[in-house]
Each structure stands twice: as structure tokens, then as C-alpha cells.
Specification:
Cytochrome Bc1 Complex, Chain D, domain 2; 210 residues; 8 helices; 2 domains; mainly alpha
């Protein structure tokens, strides 16, 4: 089988509906993918907040799995981004910048949505797992780019504020098949929490911009 990701061949009709064309696979590939999916599901069990619905991919996830080992064609990437941007929801207050101090706590917090977490317990973005943000924090990942000086470099125009909010809410609104979690779309963070993360990135008083 050409694709290594075992769920890749399950894209089928869902992906075809998004891109407007038929996805094809040989009978043997489809059967192999179906068996692999059955084995995968049999290997997991619901526990606490982690239920088997986490194995269910939406149309975009299925499509991105299909293109896991090759570049997404520009026309398809544009459709994904337009669709995902349209799904962004703003805070009820309409304010896209919150409290940077609350944003720092969210960035540091790694709890939430794991099988051992309480549904009503703390929930964060674990941002330092992938990004450098504050110069005072010496433990951070490098899967994503450094965000040191994010606001200092970009300013805080309305366009920058909206871009930053949308990017955190749904990363695929600007980068089709991005590895960054869709924090708002998947309800990992609330719109208000995302506004606090935007403040962390843009507020001149935030350690990110010191």
C-alpha cells in the first residue's frame, strides 16, 4: 500500500465532497484499510473523557490524511482554508484580545481532555510544547516556530489581531493540513481563552514582547 498512514484510504466520499471530485482506491487497498481501521479501533477503549469518537475523522482530517506524504494541491488547499475560516467563532463580547496573564497560564497548562482529567477541570493549550514564547521559560518545544517578539514584530493592527485569533482558533484557516491543533474548532479552548492567548502574543506588556 502506497500510503503509510493506515487511515489514509478511508477518506473516500467525505474528502470527495470537500474537493468536488471522486477519490479512488483499488479494492485490495480499501479492504486493507478497512481491516487496519478495525484493528485500530479494537486497540482502544473509552476511558474518562477519552472516548472512541476521537478516532473519527472529519472531512478535512480524512483529506489531509490522504495528502500526508505529498503536497496538498493549491486549489484544494484554498478550499480547505476558506471552509475552515468560515467556521471560526468569535467571543460573545466581540473582543479578540483578553488578559495576557490568563493567556500565559493557558499556554503553560497541559491538562484538559485527557482520560485522567475531570471534565470541569483546568484546560489549557500546552503552547510551550511546540513554541518558544517567553524568554523566562527555558523548557519549550520546537515543532512550531518561535513566537518570541510576536507582537513586537507584527504590531497590533486590527488585521493582525484578527489573523492571530483565527489562527489559534482554527490553524487550517490559513494553512491547510497544518499540524497545529484547531483549538477553537475542536473545543479544546473557548473563544474567551483564545482571546487571552492572543493577548499573550500581542500585548506589549506580555513577556512574549519584552
Amino acid at each position: 500500500m502506497k500510503r503509510k498512514i493506515i487511515l489514509g484510504l478511508l477518506a473516500g466520499a467525505g474528502a470527495a465532497g470537500l474537493i468536488g471530485c471522486a477519490a479512488t482506491a483499488t479494492t485490495s487497498e480499501t479492504d486493507a484499510a478497512r481491516r487496519a481501521a478495525q484493528v485500530l479501533r479494537a486497540s482502544f477503549a473509552s476511558k474518562g473523557m477519552a472516548s472512541l469518537d476521537r478516532l473519527d475523522q472529519d472531512d478535512v482530517q480524512r483529506l489531509c490524511t490522504e495528502y500526508a506524504e505529498q503536497a496538498v494541491p493549491p486549489a484544494i488547499a484554498e478550499r480547505i482554508q476558506a471552509q475552515q475560516l468560515a467556521l471560526v467563532k468569535k467571543p460573545a463580547s466581540g473582543k479578540l484580545i483578553g488578559d495576557w496573564k490568563a493567556g500565559e497560564k493557558i499556554a503553560q497548562e497541559g491538562r484538559g481532555m485527557q482520560f485522567s482529567d475531570a471534565p470541569d477541570g483546568p484546560r489549557g493549550g500546552n503552547c510551550y510544547a511546540c513554541h518558544q514564547l517567553s524568554p523566562q521559560e527555558i523548557s519549550f518545544g520546537n515543532i512550531g516556530p518561535s513566537l518570541l517578539g510576536y507582537g513586537k514584530l507584527r504590531g497590533n493592527s486590527e488585521a493582525v489581531i484578527e489573523y492571530t485569533y483565527n489562527k489559534v482558533y482554527n490553524s487550517q484557516a490559513y494553512s491547510a493540513c497544518s499540524n497545529m491543533p484547531r483549538f477553537g474548532h475542536k473545543r479544546i479552548l473557548s473563544p474567551e481563552q483564545i482571546a487571552d492567548v492572543v493577548a499573550l502574543l500581542l500585548d506589549p506588556q506580555s513577556p512574549v514582547n519584552k
